[in-house]
């Protein structure tokens, strides 16, 4: 193998390694998330989040898990298959460090009936260290009617 062939081979290997590193460090595209429908926007006023608390617990692996617990009450007249909220965590400067959409009423459970209150628990183990350790903003992101 000649010198020219070796140089081409080394350059090709460097290009492949650079592409692999770039691919591994590029975040995945955001999943397609449906916006809150007009019908759901009108129903948000009938949902009440109460007794919302935040606590930190330590796992057996000495990892800290931040948990948000509370209750959701359906004060409207329609049963709900699912309710998702957007949890937005901030740093000390008010910059968003994590935005995560999670279900507090899950399709796999029975519908949340009118007048019913149900507890929820949201564990987070992926919050960046730059988080300000304050309660995140909780915003209703989706409602699916039964």
Give short descriptive properties of this protein.
20% helix, 3-stranded antiparallel β-sheet, Immunoglobulin-like, 146 residues, alpha+beta
Would you mind describing this structure in some detail?
- The structure is a single chain.
- The chain is α+β, with helices and mostly antiparallel strands and 146 residues long.
- The protein has helices at residues 3-25, 38-43, and strands spanning 47-58, 64-74, 80-90, 96-105, 117-124, 137-145.
- The chain has a single domain (38-145), classed as Sandwich (Immunoglobulin-like).
- Strand 1 and strand 2 (64-74) form a beta hairpin.
- The longest helix has 23 residues, at 3-25.
- It is elongated, with a radius of gyration of 23 Å.
- The termini are far apart.
Anisotropy-based shape: elongated
- Cα-based radius of gyration, to the nearest Å: 23 Å
- For the report, how would you describe the main beta sheet? 3 strands, antiparallel
* CATH class annotation: Mainly Beta
Our measurement of the CA-to-CA distance between the termini, rounded to an integer number of angstroms, reads 70 Å
Counting structural domains, the number is: 1
Annotated CATH topology? Immunoglobulin-like
Q: Identify low-pLDDT runs.
A: none
Question: Helix count?
Answer: 2
In sequence order, what are the helices and strands, one letter per element? HHEEEEEE
Overall helicity = 10-25%
The strand order across the widest sheet is 1-2-5
**Percentage of residues in DSSP E strands:** 35-45%
Total beta strands:
6
């Amino acid at each position: 193998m000649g010198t020219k062939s070796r140089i081409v081979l080394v350059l090709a290997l460097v290009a492949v390694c650079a592409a692999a590193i770039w691919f591994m460090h590029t975040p995945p595209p955001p999943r397609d998330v449906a916006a809150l429908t007009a019908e759901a926007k009108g129903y948000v006023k009938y949902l009440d989040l109460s007794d919302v608390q935040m606590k930190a617990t330590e796992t057996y692996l000495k990892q800290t898990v931040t948990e948000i617990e509370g209750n959701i009450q359906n004060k409207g007249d329609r049963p709900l298959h699912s309710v998702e909220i957007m949890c937005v965590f901030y740093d000390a400067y008010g910059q968003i460090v994590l935005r995560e959409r999670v279900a507090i009423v899950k399709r796999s459970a029975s519908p949340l009936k009118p007048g019913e209150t149900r507890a929820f628990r949201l564990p987070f183990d992926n919050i960046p260290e730059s988080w300000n350790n304050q309660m995140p903003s909780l915003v209703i992101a989706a409602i699916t009617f039964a």
